[in-house]
Amino acid sequence: MNKKILGSLLIFLMATLTIFAQDMDKGKQLFKDNCASCHSKNMKDKLVGPGLGGVQERWADYPKEDLYSWIRNAPALIEKGHKRANEVWEEFKPMPMTPFPNLKDEEIADMLAYIDGVDKGTYGKKKAAASGGGDLPANYAQGKQIFKDNCASCHSKNMKDKLVGPGLGGVEERWADYPKEDLYSWVRNAPALIETGHKRANEVWEEFKPMPMTPFPNLKDEEIAAVFSYIDAVYTGKDAKPAATDTAATDSTAPTKAKETKRSSWPYLVLFALLALLGAFLWQRGTKLEYEAALARGEEPIGEPKSFLGTLFGEPVRGFIMFALTVGITFIAADYAIGYGRQNGYQPDQPIKFSHKTHAGDNKIDCQFCHDGARRSKHSNVPEGSTCIKCHAAITKGSTYGTAELTKIYASLGWDPNTGKYIPNYNSLSEEQVKGIFTKWIRNKNSDAKDLDNLVNTQWEGIVTSLTNPSKSQVQGPVEWIRVHALPDHVYFNHSQHVNVGGLECQTCHGKVEEMDVLHQESPLSMGWCINCHRETPVKFKDNKYYQEQFPWHKKQMEDGTIDKVTVGDLGGLECQKCHY
């Protein structure tokens, strides 16, 4: 009886924890880490693999464990002759699904919950409502994306400040005396409209020449309308998120992003404690019933049953607790040891708020323009401040933070934006002299600010806080950036080998940096992750002088159809000494 009670209790406990543990936010991160390279994010389109929307329904005729086995090791399930596994294999071969043997049941459940939420449109709805975007126009999201792709490099994001072009807030009102088609024509081809002698077009040209507006001839009417809807939402404050960004632009102490709400573990601990008490009670009750039944049969029971408290604190329970603690502590220690130095998702706040999204995404600056060491060195360098000056000698006010962050770069280098020259003997200047130079610049550049004195003081305090520390007493000197990606010392990795010889994009290892406002470590950088890439990545022989000597060895096999590709692993990329000397 006791065994049946405990068995039922254990099943109930596992089922309850599985149901409660499904966390779509965790599933999203797991999907990014494991699935996003081969499956589309919208869960519908076919990429390398199929769209994953409805995957649980497609496996509904089989036990849940079969789908979990497929995710952990698809080739093994195919070899067993599993019907559904072989149907998927026939559809998508010869590209096998990457095995993920270390994924736990609850992690797979989280991923499937996230996939289902995205597919059915339920994931993210509550967050969108909480952001204050309920009154936004239906085409807001489309307009935001088009603005980012086409307009953000010349027009400020807050729709108010003048950048290369004017702030776009109220643009439709400024063209209200002309047909809507004229404004759309201006967007598609401003120079052509100016040549026709259009009055409003020439007024704008006179104000902003000699920099003509870039033509966008392929934009459709509905796309231009969507951009104007987005511009109006930001300008009028309907968009909660840009409003928060504008606030951050005037306050250098504002956090780079809101703290994420984490699910509390207390409900699970309380549930586990209650189930443990229930188990102890049922165990004690069952023991007592067996004792009484033995007496009724005239048998002599072995020992009297313990009370509830005696059962709860008895030797078997204490032994189990000690055993569980030993296993748990050992597991945690081993897990931390394996992950040492691998900080997947690590996202530190940097001394200067630098947005890769603005530079590499909105403005399409090539990664190697700043990180030029990646193509010619083992290491990819952190850009020197002088690299920043190549652009920011001319662009002196940022689209998001205004002068707050750019002035930190000027102050670290000794670049005087008032004169456009480096300051002589800069390192020998006192802090008061440095302060005088850059507070004058901040004041001149923000002369229309409401509380100018407070803004100047706040930005100067931000400069001092960011550029000094216990080991660096003066503002002058290099910016001490916080390293995000770090491999252990016993691992050899050569950037130029991968960038020049392998022809890999930076995003392969670093993720979509062009979408990151704050840089984070996207990939796990584990040995298994690297080895798996070497096993699957085909060598690019064409126009690759480095591998021309290797190509003849495999050319005949590829022509005969014996092999369809040559991977890095085939050329020795799995040998231990390649990465560990």
Q: How would you summarize the topology of this molecule?
A:
Blueprint: H1 2-21, H2 24-34, H3 55-58, H4 64-72, H5 74-79, H6 83-92, H7 105-120, H8 125-130, H9 140-150, H10 171-174, H11 180-188, H12 190-195, H13 199-208, H14 221-236, H15 240-249, H16 266-296, H17 308-312, H18 315-338, H19 356-362, H20 367-370, H21 385-392, H22 406-413, E1 415-416, E2 421-422, H23 431-445, H24 452-467, H25 495-501, H26 507-510, H27 527-536, H28 551-560, H29 576-580
Antiparallel strand pairs: 1-2
Helix pairs in contact: 1-16, 2-7, 9-14, 21-22, 22-24, 23-24
Structural class based on helices, strands and sheet pairing = mainly alpha
Q: Strand tally, please?
A: 2
- Helix count equals 29
Largest sheet: 2 strands, antiparallel
Low-pLDDT windows of residues? 15-21, 125-134, 241-262
CATH architecture group name of the domain at 140-249: Orthogonal Bundle
Helix content, binned percent: 40-55%
* Strand order in the sheet with the most strands: 1-2
